Amino acid sequence: MVDVETINMRTEFFCLTNRFPYSDEKSAFLNRFDERFQELCLDYFLCLESLSHWEAILKKDKNCVQEYLELRNALETELMQYIKATSTETSHSST
């Protein structure tokens, strides 16, 4: 039986791979074994949920939506930098 936490991790990870399909292999490894990466995925997922909420409910409040768009971009950048940095470290330690 799959627990709720596993389902949530899959949902959070799906959001990442949906946005960055080319990072599947690297990010799948990090998602399994790296707690910080899992936290980033959760933050990204929560940001996307909030952004969707604010876009739907508060279309008039452009500032709030803009802040979440900027947060999404910052989290995407941090996720990609983390994947690159970790992949480089992993490559060097495996040789």
Features of this protein?
95 residues; mainly alpha; single chain
What does this structure look like?
The protein is mostly helical. The protein has a domain at 34-85. The chain is 85% helix and 0% strand. The longest helix is centred in the C-terminal third of the chain and has 32 residues, at 62-93. The chain is elongated, with a radius of gyration of 15 Å. The termini are far apart. The mean pLDDT is 80.
Task: Detail the topology: elements first, then pairings.
Blueprint: H1 4-19, H2 24-33, H3 35-57, H4 62-93
Helix pairs in contact: 1-3, 2-3, 3-4
Topology, number of strands: 0
Mean pLDDT: 80
Task: List segments where confidence is low: pLDDT < 50 over at least 5 consecutive residues.
Answer: none
Category by helix and strand content: mainly alpha
Enumerate how many helices there are, as a single number. 4
Please state the CA-atom Rg, rounded to the nearest Å: 15 Å
Helix and strand element order = HHHH
Termini, distance in Å?
38 Å
Shape: elongated
Summarize the structure.
The protein has about 100 residues and is mainly alpha-helical. Helices cover about 85% and strands about 0% of the residues.
